[in-house]
Design goal:
By secondary structure, the chain is an alpha/beta fold. It folds into two domains: about 5-85, no CATH class; about 100-275, Rossmann fold (3-Layer(aba) Sandwich), CATH 3.40.50. It is about 45% helix and about 15% strand. The chain has eleven helices and nine strands. A four-stranded parallel β-sheet has the order 3-2-1-4. Strands 6-7-8 form a three-stranded antiparallel β-sheet, covered by helices on one side. α1 runs antiparallel to α2 (about 40-55), α6 packs parallel to α7 and α9 packs parallel to α10. The two termini are about 35 Å apart. InterPro entries: TF_GRAS (IPR005202). Belongs to the GRAS family.
Length: about 325
């Protein structure tokens, strides 16, 4: 095993730790994800057995879902796997509501993108590290769609409307599926159709594409040279969230970050900023976003807490009873 691949040591709850079952299971699920990412099959199997002993089919909905997700792969449970695939969307939505790490990450990212976008931008272009089922983007589509409706209404008052285009670029990884089959209902075209369905009530111009990472930098550099429409670019990077159905390796992470740096460096050149160098500064998160995030996790009633930290107050942290679950960071060129 390559020790350089391990970012943090795997920590499993022991019997003498004073920790409730819910937090214990959460630690085990996180440890299972790390074991799978590090290709430690034997450790993942041990963790699977421990989780299966802590959850059952008659508990709360999250316990029920975890019970069938972490059963040994024999003929009987393979049947459950096939049947659960038919209800994938419902199960994914349930996980999204149960575990707030994805919901808070998506909300914070969308808020930052919308707040940072210049008012006169003709297009908002988001490059997404792992689009998955596209759950993050329905809310941003609705927000931009409502704004589009307001701008269209200005036609009646003699103003020239400013039409906004939202472009979503999903990265197409060559080893899609990471060694296991990716069912047709999770493929890109289905996600694209679902996102376009969200735009129907609003009339927003939506473009959704899938590009291989090695082609992305070349394509973006060509656009900058061509001097196309005024476009606001955002990189969306979510990794190791419980709602992401696919697991990306650390190699994927490094490749994406490297490509993003290449694109941003080229933008700094064409923006005449090369003399001062290439640097990303922290983008301050708003108090409104913090208050809304606290309300989403029911801070004070539920065992979750949200806070903002960082030198420029550009990081948001979600905690469960003092244990950090996720950290979100926002930066700009």
């Amino acid at each position: 095993m390559d020790a350089s691949l391990i970012q943090q040591p795997l920590t499993l709850p022991t019997g003498d730790m004073e920790i409730d079952n819910q937090l214990s299971v959460h630690h085990l699920v996180k440890a299972y994800k790390e074991a799978m990412e590090n290709k430690e099959a034997e450790l993942a199997e041990v963790i699977t057995r421990r989780i299966s002993k802590k959850v059952g089919p008659t508990g709360e909905i999250e316990e029920h879902l975890l019970y069938y997700s972490f059963q040994p792969l024999d003929k009987e449970t393979d049947y459950f796997t096939q049947e659960s695939a038919k209800n994938f969307d419902g199960a994914l939505e349930a996980f999204y509501k149960i575990f707030p790490d994805g919901m808070i990450s998506h909300f914070t990212a969308n808020s930052v993108i919308l707040e940072a976008k210049p008012r006169d931008a003709e297009a908002l272009h988001i490059i997404d590290f792992d689009m998955g089922e596209g759950m993050q983007w329905s809310s941003i589509i609705m927000a931009l769609g409502r704004k589009q409706k307001e701008l269209q209404a200005q036609q009646y008052y003699g103003h020239i409307p400013h039409y906004m285009t939202l472009k979503l670029t999903a990265i197409k990884w060559k080893d899609e599926g990471s060694g296991h089959d990716v069912p047709s209902w999770r493929k890109f075209e289905e996600t694209k159709r679902r996102l376009h369905d969200c735009t129907n009530p609003f009339g927003l111009i939506l473009e959704v594409e899938e590009v291989e990472l090695q082609d992305l930098a070349r394509k973006m550099k060509g656009k900058r040279k061509g001097g196309e429409r005024r476009e606001w670019l955002a990189f969306n990077f979510m990794w190791a969230l419980s709602q992401l159905a696919r697991k990306r390796s650390r190699r994927h992470v490094l490749d994406f970050v490297r490509t993003a740096k290449e694109i941003l460096a080229s933008i700094s050149v064409y923006s005449n900023t090369s003399n001062r160098g290439f640097w990303l500064e922290g983008l301050r998160l708003s108090n409104e976003s913090l208050l809304e995030a606290k309300e989403m996790v029911r801070e004070g009633e539920a065992p979750y807490a949200v806070r903002i930290e960082g030198e420029n107050y550009n990081e948001m942290v979600l905690e469960f009873r003092g244990t950090q679950l996720i950290k979100f960071s926002a930066r700009k060129l």
